[in-house]
User: Fold this.
Amino acid sequence: MGDRTLVCLGGGPAGLFLARLLRRADQSWHVTVYERNICDATFGFGIGLADRLLDELAERDPDTHRRVLAAGVVGHGMSLRHRGTDLRWGPRGGLAVSRAELLRILREQALEAGVTLKYGTPADVRSVDATVIVGADGANSATRATLGEELGVTESLGRAKYIWLGAEIDLAGMTFSLVADEHGAWASHAYPYAPGLATFLVETDEDTWRRAGLDQADPPLNDEGSDLLSIRHLERVFRDDLGGRPLLGNRSRWANFRNVRCDRWSARNVVLVGDAAHTAHFSIGSGTTMAMEDSLSLVRHLITAADPPEAFARYEAERRPPVEHLQSRAAASQTWWETFGERMDGDPHQVAFQYLTRTGALSYDRLRGADPRLAREVAGWFAGSAAARSGADPLCAPITIAGTRLATRVVVTRPP
Assistant:
């Protein structure tokens, strides 16, 4: 490619990983990563990495794979707590690891490969000069905003409110808890990422959030900048799940999930990776995995293509299909979680089955193969339900939705 300089805007997992991979593949590249936050000023708790990423990481960068694996917690089972019942299934697979620890590992690995890291140094596409500029600056990407028209950006905000927290609790695996109080319905997504530590994400609908008085424009904050009023309220809501332990904040504030899609992932000499290019709802746990997979793909094509435009085109052609597939599944999952309050009166077995099949990736037949015990429990619940007593096949059994009774569970829609 001739001149070989690359600037990465953003020192998250995607940016640091890409920088190391490129330097390891070809040391004629001069690679610099700019991160506006100071070193170690990371946010968040644990993040998940899928088995498919870990497999490719083992092949492409065995040393980093070894270090990440040693730092994380291998996925175990999953469970749903609802109406006094704790349903379990699994195993889940994958790995959960502290975001701060993952960034420390990737930072050290990048430095070992000869990458220049500039922390506490804001930079943007207008202030840097390089053969290739990579926008790895996350869901709120300034790079994407600057090139919005050229990239064909579409953004929207989800309906639910969510907040990332942590807790000093021991969990056997991913745990979902649905809780109702006088204000409405609350859900937690919790999973272990280190001994005695768990991510504890909470979401709710906006009406419940407002009724609980958590919609203050300027809430009281604790020393590290988290919404103290919300933390104290959620400690009461989830006291049984927490065993009386406090919730931990890390600049934790309520937000609405940002859905991001781009018609094009590159413009001129700038290319986007990870959440800067595309987001997928956190409930499918693929954000960091997709970002690091983007880095693997982009580096492969930067090394083999004749020039940056060809590399960008190959990268997007390779990555867009799996990303859009995951985005489609994530959209279905997001809708399910944004409406979970409508299921609070449901039997725990019914709610668990609805959760597992929410994206269309898992059917009842596949569940029977993956987890026969849970499938038997679900079948047992249905056998005792009013619908089963009608004697009809489950698909043809009557159902009542929002006060409307349908003769079967098959609905045919016709265009107007």
